[in-house]
Specification:
Blueprint: E1 2-3, E2 17-21, H1 25-37, E3 41-45, E4 57-60, E5 63-66, H2 77-86, H3 95-98, E6 122-126, E7 129-133, E8 136-139, H4 146-152, H5 154-169, H6 178-203, H7 213-218, H8 224-236, E9 254-258, H9 262-275, E10 279-281, E11 284-292, E12 295-303, E13 309-313, E14 316-319, H10 323-329, E15 330-331, H11 336-344, E16 345-357, E17 379-382, E18 391-394, H12 395-398, E19 409-417, H13 428-441, E20 450-467, H14 472-479, E21 485-487, H15 490-493, H16 499-514, H17 521-524
Parallel strand pairs: 2-3, 2-14, 3-10, 7-17, 11-15, 14-21
Antiparallel strand pairs: 1-13, 4-5, 6-9, 7-8, 11-12, 12-13, 16-19, 16-20, 17-18, 18-19
Helix pairs in contact: 1-9, 1-16, 5-6, 10-11, 11-14
Length: 536
């Protein structure tokens, strides 16, 4: 690295360098791909001290938190094989299969991977997530199942059916908002019951103010008819494979999951990057992107601990930092409309309150055996009125190895907010008390069951599809002029990508470098095909 004091932009060696901003899935994938397929040296700068970005795992006193819940599943065979090269898939039952005597369909080979004996392993998980509404559990994604019909009652079911048929016969012709999108696919009654309040809790604005593009990206392949068809197929036969090629992504029932959470995989990837000659600099914030005409020449970094400034040159630049921040630090002649659009981009922030419990108040077993007969869901969408909690994760059910003491229950309460608002600025102890009171209010815990807690805040977790987003093309047109600058990942592209989509953007960018291609269209086209869409 070259110190800022010299002012020199002369590379240290003749070998070409790729400067990568961010050590999340996109940045780490780009580094691995460069090391495997080119002679370009990747140098990653990560603002925090963590690896994995939004896919990191937080370890609190031996209890691990997955921020947001990350299923390792992709419609891309390339991504699935990439993951499995990093970590093998389990061949023997995991702890939560052994203890309750749960039946599993595994065929161990002589050199099989046993999660009870090794740490570097993918578990094969069966998904269950439901909606808590009116004190009852509903299927997620929503379907007209027997449980749904029983929970709603005959009159409500008739209204839902009529509303759905009306939407199919007389759809809204021009979908301008997310509200239009939901109504066309589920009918107004189901939209009002299951989508409106939760979505507005997530984003903090009415569904009518959010672009329909969010729905088109996240859940384009899901509708009421497809959910019902999936339910019928499940009754007829189950697809035991991980591929599940004929299943909509939102309906996927099996997925891979690292023994110690998603961050475990990305930490392993980081070790591989370093072992192959790449560099990862933590606690290094990008404060300036130095441009020469329409070429990026270098980045200036600041160590967030020491305050030291340094400059690093490179031939290629990958950015997964928030687009608004990228534009702000670019030392270039930036058009006014680009500056205005960047300034108007909106992000939604996120808080997880981790609670260690003696027990949960209710089991709602859903025909699945669990240790301590806890709720078997990976996560639960909270649709109840009068509480701010959006989603509840039960980390025991993601992986039993995420919990230090198997006799305890380790959960995460997810709150969506804006940095600086009343929820974000609430002191940790008061926020914990608030979260405990909410869970008690909806009858999921008793207050005296809480053993410990932790609060984790995440900035810019969700790029929003409102604010100045409608003019985002102006930013893309400007950035695409810089041939050696590649935007990748969720925040890098201001697109609600999943980890596999973020990885594919990085893979595609590396291929463009290898092919000396100047187009960025193929990078922007990732996660526009229907088979990639998913709703978390």
């Amino acid at each position: 690295m070259i110190t800022a004091a010299t002012g020199s932009l002369v590379p240290i060696m003749n070998r070409k360098h790729a400067i990568i901003i961010g050590a999340g899935p996109a940045g780490l994938t780009a580094a691995c791909e460069l090391l495997d397929k080119t002679d370009i040296k990747p140098i990653i700068f990560e603002k925090s001290n963590d690896i994995g970005g939004l896919s990191k795992t937080v370890n609190y006193k031996g209890n691990r938190i997955d921020l947001g819940g990350h299923r390792f599943f992709s419609k891309s065979d390339r991504v699935m094989e990439w993951w499995k090269k990093i970590m093998p898939v389990q061949d023997f039952p995991s702890h939560d299969d052994l203890v309750p005597g749960r039946a599993v369909s595994l065929s161990p080979a002589p050199d099989a991977t046993d999660p009870e004996k090794t740490d570097k392993v993918f578990l094969v998980r069966n998904r269950l997530s439901r909606i808590l509404f009116l004190g009852k559990f509903f299927d997620y994604p929503v379907s007209l199942s027997r449980a749904t019909l029983a929970n709603f009652g005959l009159l409500k079911v008739v209204k839902i059916t009529h509303s759905y048929l009306k939407a199919k016969i007389f759809p809204i012709k021009h979908e301008k908002s997310l509200e239009d999108f939901f109504i066309n696919r589920f009918g107004r009654e189901l939209y009002l019951a299951f989508f409106k309040d939760y979505t507005e809790k997530v984003w903090g604005v009415p569904c009518s103010a959010i672009s329909a593009e969010w729905g088109a990206q996240r859940i384009k392949g899901l509708s009421m008819s497809r959910a019902v068809l999936h339910a019928v197929k499940k009754l007829a036969a189950k697809d035991p494979s991980l591929a599940q090629k004929d299943t909509e992504t939102s309906l996927i029932g099996r997925f891979l999951y690292p023994k110690y959470g998603p961050g475990q995989l990305w930490e392993e990837v980081a070790n591989i990057v370093i072992s192959k000659g790449g560099e990862i600099h933590r606690n290094c914030e990008i404060v300036k992107i130095i441009c020469q005409g329409e070429t990026v020449a270098a980045v200036q970094t600041r160590n967030t601990i020491t305050g030291e400034l340094a400059t690093q040159t490179g031939e290629y630049f990958f950015s997964s930092m928030p687009v608004a921040n990228l534009i702000k630090v670019m030392d270039a002649d930036i058009p006014r409309d680009v500056l205005q659009t960047a300034h108007g981009l909106v992000y939604r922030d996120f808080i997880t309150v981790g609670l260690l419990l003696k027990r949960l108040k209710t089991s709602h077993a859903a025909n699945r055996k669990t240790i301590n007969t806890i709720i078997p869901d990976n996560w639960i969408y909270i649709q109840e009125q009068g509480v701010k909690i959006g989603r509840l994760q039960i980390f025991n059910n993601w992986s039993p190895y995420m919990v230090k003491d198997a006799d305890t229950v380790w959960i995460g309460l997810e709150y969506f907010c804006n940095e600086g608002d009343a929820l974000w600025t609430k002191p940790d102890d008061k926020l914990t008390a608030f979260a405990v009171a909410e869970l008690a209010k909806i009858d999921l815990i008793e207050k005296d069951a809480v053993l410990d807690s932790v609060v984790i805040r995440v900035e810019k977790a969700y790029p929003a599809y409102f604010g100045s987003y409608g003019d985002f093309q102006t930013i893309r047109n400007f950035i695409d002029r810089f041939a050696n600058l590649f935007l990748v990942g969720r925040n890098g592209m201001h697109r609600y990508n999943n980890a596999d989509h973020s990885m594919l953007t990085a893979m595609t960018a590396v291929e463009n470098i290898m092919n000396k291609s100047t187009t960025k269209d193929n990078i922007w086209s990732v996660n526009t095909e229907e088979e990639y869409h998913e709703k978390n």
